[in-house]
Each structure stands twice: as structure tokens, then as C-alpha cells.
Amino acid sequence: xxxATIDSIRTSLENERASLERQLLDSGASIEGDQVEVSFDxxxxxxxxxxxxxxxxxxxxxxxHATHSEVVAALARLDEGGYGICESCGSRIASERxxxxxxxxxxxxxxxxxx
Length: 115
Known about the structure:
Blueprint: H1 3-26, H2 47-80, H3 95-100, H4 108-114
Helix pairs in contact: 1-2
């Protein structure tokens, strides 16, 4: 893979990490943990709605954390020299796949086998 492509992917991953961290903080969550601070008005009468909103927020934060972890792991692979190597078979991951999905850990063949 060309250095310009690697640099572009790194920039994209760093921007994605910063965006995810902002979203986590805006949601009242910590970046590294899974604690969420939620506050509702004391006069909020509809506890079912509050529970529903809390459930949606927790699901959103969990997804943000999962994506953040994948982005951080991809950046670590870039730093350590293992980026672009399939974690299953050890083959190179096609650069087109990495450009489309920079957090990819598996080549397309191994991903299709796993489903």
C-alpha cells in the first residue's frame, strides 16, 4: 500500500476517533468506560418515556464505545506495523477494502467465512 494511502487512512481514523470522543462526551459518557451520566427533570412525570430514552441512550453509547475501540485498535495496528494484515489468515487485506472500511481486521475471504 502506498504511503499516501496510509497517511490518508490514518487521518481519516484520527478524525473519526475525535468525532466519536466528542459524541461520547456530548452523550454524558466517559471515553474509556461505559458510565453514562443522565439527568431528567425532577418533575418528569412519564417514567416509561424516561426509561425508554435512557435505554436508547445506553444503546447509542455502547455502539459509540464499540466503534471507538475498533478505531483505536486500527490506529494501534498502524503504529505497530500490523495494519492491513488479516488477523485470521495473515494475508494482506486489499487496499480497496481498507479504504472503504479502515477498521477492517479481516480480508474479504475470511470475513465471508465468518459471516
